[in-house]
Amino acid sequence: MSILFFNVKRDRTGAMDQKCMKGRPSISCDNSNTVHDIPIFTEEFLNFNKARDSELRELRKKVTDQEQEVCVLDKHIENMENVSTKLVAINEQLKAGCSKYENYLIKLRSRLLDAFSNTAFPDNTVLPTHENIDTYIVNYFTHQETSTVTDPSWIKYFKKGLTNLDTSQC
After folding, report:
1. Across 39-53, 70-84, 109-123, 139-153, which has the greatest mean pLDDT?
2. Using one digit for the tens of pLDDT, what is the confidence trace for 105-140?
3. What gap in Å lies between CA 8 and CA 129, rounded to an integer?
4. pTM, 2 dp
């Protein structure tokens, strides 16, 4: 009757190569590989198997945990890409809206200049130009809000200019 041996061989990286052999144990001792021949169904063999099973369970658990982390990170990346795409689309919409309002403002300034060009203001008031139309309108409304005494003739001329305003083409 021959005895079965379990041959365990570890290489430099710690990986194991296992073989089941019949006959007497052989012991190999070179620098690169270590071989341990363990008789099957002995206490040493059973302990070795328990240690291997425990090591494999731990490795499987680590792999499962890392796979779950990768899945969570993939989902996070996907969500970030979706949000990024939405933000780019919103940004484009806002740019288009701003462009539309900028064009409207340019046309409105032009219409205001046309409306005030036919209006004569008292007190040698400087007529609005392309460079000062914004300041001109702001100053008028600021003057209206802060002044206790308003020159009715100036208001009359300003209102006359606004009535000449053609907003249909803005």
Report:
1. 70-84
2. 888 888 888 877 766 665 556 777 888 888 878 877
3. 95
4. 0.50
